[in-house]
Amino acid sequence: MGNRGRGHQTTMRAEQVLPERVYLWARGTEGLSLVLLDVGIVFGAWCIATAAALAALERSMSLGTFLAGVALATIVQIVLHRAAGMYGPVWRYASVEEALRVVTGVLVGSLLATLALALVRFGTDHFFPLVMAPPLAALLSLLACGGVRFQARLFAVSRISAAEVDERLRTVIVGTANDAAPLANELRTTATDRELEVVGFIPTDPSLPGKSLRGIPVLGTVDELEDVCRKHRVERILITTSPNDQGTPYILERALATDAQVKVLPASADRVKGPLVNSLRDIDVTDLLGRKSAVVDGEGIEDYIRGATVLVTGAGGSIGSEISRQVSSYGPAKLIVLDRDETLLYELMSGSLAGSGAVPVLADICDSVFIQQLFRQHRPDVVFHAAAQKHVPILEHFPTEAVRVNVLGTLTVAQTAADSGCRRFVHISTDKAADPCSVMGATKRAAEQVVFEIGRRHDLAFVAVRFGNVLASRGSVVPTFLRQILDGGPVTVTSAEMTRYFMTIPEAVSLVLQAGSMAVDDARVYLLDMGDPVPILSLARQMIRLAGLRPEEDIEIRITGIRPGERLHERLHDDAEVVEPAGHPSISALDPKATWDWEELAKQLEGLRSAVRQRDEQNVRGRLEDMLRAGGVDVTLRDAGSRPGWSS
Q1: Distance (Å, rounded) from C-alpha 615 to C-alpha 450?
Q2: What pLDDT, on a 0 to 100 scale, did the predictor assign at position 120?
Q3: DSSP-assigned letter for residue 459
Q4: Whole-angstrom Cα distance, residue 590 to residue 587?
Q5: Last residue within a domain, chosen from 125, 143, 164
Q6: Which of 98, 163, 189, 638 has the most CB atoms within 10 Å of its CB?
Q7: Residue-level pLDDT at 15
C-alpha cells in the first residue's frame, strides 16, 4: 500500500516537472527564433548588396566565392548583434535605448564584416566589391532588423491607442464657435480630460454645417442632433451656450431626446478657475427655463435694510427662508423670523441662519394680540410678509382656513405694521391672484387689496409683489415630479396642455427685495417678469430624461385631469389692472382701475370675518367674491363639492 502511494507521488512529481522543464527550455531559447531570423535577414541583405554591386561594376565572381564571402559577413555581423545585446530586450516595451542597440549592432557588425572580407580578399586575391556592397548591406540589415524588432512595439502602441479610443466617450460639442473652439482645443491638445474623444461639432449658426472647427468636422444642425448622435454613436454632448441664452432650452430639449449624457459649460462668470473641462456640470431643471437671471441694485437694497429691524413672516417656507437668508447678508440691525411651524423654524435657525443672531418667533399671524405685542417689542422698520396657505386643491375644500390666514392674517400684520409706523411692508403674492378662479387665488388677490389700501390710507410704502411658481418650493410640481421619478413612476400631469410660469427662488427673492427698494412713498402692486410659460408635460419629460430614463418606456406619464381650482394657463394680470413700467427691466407696476373706499373695505372685511367665525364655508365663498367685485375684480369661484380623498 505504502509502495503504491510512493510510486503514485513519484509519477505526480514527474508530471509536474516535465511542463516546468519545457517552459524553462522555451524561456532559455526565446531568442533563438530572432537569431535565425537575423541570419536570414543579414544573409539576404549581403546577397542583394553584393549582387547589386557586381551588376553596377559589371564584374562577376564564382558562386563559391560569392557564398563564402556572404556567409563570412553574416557570421561576423550576427556575433556583433549578440555582443550589442540585440537578443535580450522585450521588444514590445522597446525605447530609445533598444533602438541604439540595433543601430550599433548593425553598423559595427557591418564594419567588422567588411574588414573580415577585406582580409580574405587581400590574402587570397579573390575579388569582392568592398566599396559598394557593405553600405548597401548595412542599410538593408538595419531596416529589416529594426523593423522586425520594433513592429512589436508599434503593434503594442497601436493596440493601446485603439483601446484608449474605445474606452473614451464619443463626444460632440454643441454651441457657438467662439465658445466651442477653446473647449475643443483643450480636449484635443491637453491631458486634462482623457475620457473624451471629440468626434464633431454642432453649431448654433446654421451656415456652418459642412465646414470644420479647429479640424473638428461640423456634423449637422441642432435640429439634426438626434440623427447625428445615432449615426456617430455619440455618448456625451457638451453644450457651450449659456443656460441664460434664449435658444438653450431648445438645444437642451434636443439633447435630452438622445441617449447621450449631457453636460453644460456655464457662463464665464460661473466658471471655476483652470481648464474649461473643470467647469462642465450636469444640467438641472433651472437650465430648462431659458431665462437670464435678473440683475438687481444691491446698493439700493442695502440702503433700506442695513441697520434696520426686519421682520419676515412665514420665514420657514421656501420663499420666506430665502428672504431671511438674503436679508441677513445686507446687514440688518435685527432680523426677526416668524413661523407657526416649529420644525421649519428650527431648520432655518440651524441651517442658513445659524450664527446670524436672528430672533426666532413661533407664532400664528392670525393671533392679533401676540402680533401687536411683537410689534411693540421690536418695532420693525421693514416687514416681508410671506406667511400664507398656498396649495390650490386643498384650499378649494377649506375656504374658511384660506380666508382666515391669507386675508385676515394679512390684515392683522399689515394694519399692526401701519399703526406701529413701519416704513416698508412687502407682501408676497402669486400669479393666481390675477383673474382668480380658485379660493387660493381669490384670497391672495384680496390680500393684495388689503395691503394696497392700508398703505394708501396711511401714506406708507406698502407693496405687494406678484410672481408665478418657483422651482423646488415645497409641494410644487418639480419636487413632486422628482419624488415620483425616484419611486419609479408614474409621473402625474393634470393636463397635456397645462403651462405654468417658473423662476428660481433666489431670483424671485432678489427681485422682491428690489421691489422693496422701489417702494418709497406709495402703495403699489409689483409684477415680476416671469419669462415665457413652460409646458408642464414637456417639463415632466425633460425631468425624466435628466434622471437618465426614457419617458413612457422607463417611466409612465399619466394624465390625471385638472384638479379643483386649477386652470390650464396662468395669467399675470387681468382687465381690472393697468400695467405700467416701474423703472426696472424685470419689474412692472400694476395699478387697479377701481379704487376702494376704506369704509366699504372695512365693511367687507368685517362680513368676511363674521363668516369665518361661523365656519360657514358657502358664506365665506360668497363674501370673498363680493369683496373682490367691490374692488372691480370679476370673479366666480366654482363650488369644489364634497371633500374627496386626495388625488395627485
Answers
A1: 22
A2: 79
A3: T
A4: 10
A5: 164
A6: 98
A7: 47
Contacts 24+ apart (CB under 8 A), 27-33: 31/87, 31/88
Residue 327 near residue 513 (C-beta atoms within 8 A): yes
* Cell matching residue 203: 453649431
Element (H, E) at 561: none
β partners of residue 60: none
pTM value is 0.68
Same domain, 436 and 356: yes
- Helices and strands counted in the chain (H then E): 21, 22
Amino acid, single-letter form, for residue 648: S
Structural domain includes residue 446? yes
Q: Which residues contact 222 (CB under 8 A, 6 or more apart)?
A: 174, 202, 204, 247, 250, 251, 254
DSSP string, 209-266: TTSEETTEEB---GGGHHHHHHHTT--EEEE-S-TTSTTHHHHHHHHHTSSSEEEE--
CA distances from 473 to 68, 320, 390, 478 (A): 96, 11, 11, 8
| Maximum separation of any 2 CA atoms in the chain, in Å | 140
- One DSSP character per residue, 256-294 reads HTSSSEEEE---GGGPPSS-GGGG-EE--GGGGG--PPP
* All three cell numbers of 631: 374692488
Residues 21 and 54 in one domain: no
Please choose, from the candidates 539, 538, 484, 472, the residue with its C-alpha nearest in 3D space to the C-alpha of residue 509: 472
Q: CB 619: neighbour CB atoms within 10 A?
A: 17
Which range of residues forms the domain containing residue 177? 168-283
Domain identity same for 235 and 357: no
Distance (Å, whole) CA 64 – CA 128: 12
Rounded to an integer, what distance in angstroms lies between the CA atom of residue 34 and that of residue 44? 15
Find the angle CA(477)-CA(479)-CA(484) to the nearest 5 degrees. Answer: 90
Residue indicated by cell numbers 550599433:
104
DSSP type of residue 445: H
Please state, in angstroms and as integers, the Cα–Cα distance from residue 89 to each residue in 99, 150, 153, 489, following that order: 11, 11, 11, 61
Query: From CA 81, how far away is CA 38, in angstroms rounded?
Result: 9
What's 511's domain CATH number? Answer: 3.40.50.720
Is the bond into 490 cis (omega within 30 degrees of 0)? yes
Residue 648, in any domain of the structure: no
- In whole angstroms, what is the distance from residue 375 CA to residue 368 CA? 11
Residues 527, 578: Cα–Cα separation, whole Å: 11
> pLDDT value at position 191?
46
| Single-letter amino acid, residue 509 | V
Q: Mean pLDDT per segment of 10 residues, for the chain of length 648 residues?
A: 45 47 45 76 86 82 82 85 68 58 81 83 73 83 75 51 57 80 72 67 72 76 88 86 66 83 70 66 73 82 96 95 96 96 95 92 96 97 96 92 97 96 94 92 94 90 92 78 88 91 90 91 85 88 82 89 85 88 90 83 92 92 91 77 47
C-alpha cell at 52: 547589386
Q: What is the pLDDT of residue 96?
A: 59
Instruction: Report the interhelical angle of 133-167 vs 96-124 (nearest 10°).
Output: 160
